[in-house]
Amino acid sequence: MAVAIRPMREEDLAIVARLNDAAVPAVNALPVGELRRLADGGWAAVAVVDGAVCGGMIALPPGFDYRSENYAWFSQRFIGPRAFLYVDRIVIAASSRRLGAASRLYAAAFAHARAQGFPRVTCEVNIRPANEASLAFHQRSGFREIGQQDTCGGAKRVALLSAASGDGPEAAP
User: Fold this and answer.
1) How far is CA 40 from CA 37, 76, 135, 164, in A?
2) Which pLDDT tens digit goes with each residue over 119-148?
3) What's the rounded Cα separation, in Å, for the pair 62 and 82?
4) In sequence order, which ranges of the chain are alpha helices (DSSP H)?
5) Which CATH superfamily does the domain covering 3-167 fall into?
6) How do the domains of the chain map onto residue ranges?
7) CB of 109 within 8 A of CB of 103?
8) Could you tell me the pTM of the whole model?
């Protein structure tokens, strides 16, 4: 099964919101309206297999009005209008994991970052509760831990990750 990547469309939002909510606590719950606002303010793409959306990613530039503790952490450390591209969330349907959808979405995000002049791509992964599969995936994809922080009033702890946009995965043909 081939995975295709394309820009997120209005009709994809409800599907991506369902995938997102199914992935809690690896990601925070997100209503469709907020998902739309984030997608409109940044870069958003979906993974498609056999014509069906099976995953989605949203990445934000600096300066976006967003009350995320993790986005704020990167914003305080990397200053400038093109200082980083922050992957706010990536979600893949459980039935579509191991097909390469996450790798293809990240390759597209890195290609976007390079094309737009972002020197780094950033994100976070839960380490409490542990998301070991995601942490291993991000390490294989070139991300390195540059910090940690407690979030959600101490209920979660995240590893804050960064990768040089030039070192990230290349988009598959």
Assistant:
1) 5, 23, 27, 24
2) 999 999 999 989 999 999 999 999 999 999
3) 7
4) 13-22, 32-41, 69-77, 101-116, 132-140
5) Gcn5-related N-acetyltransferase (GNAT) (3.40.630.30)
6) 3-167
7) no
8) 0.93
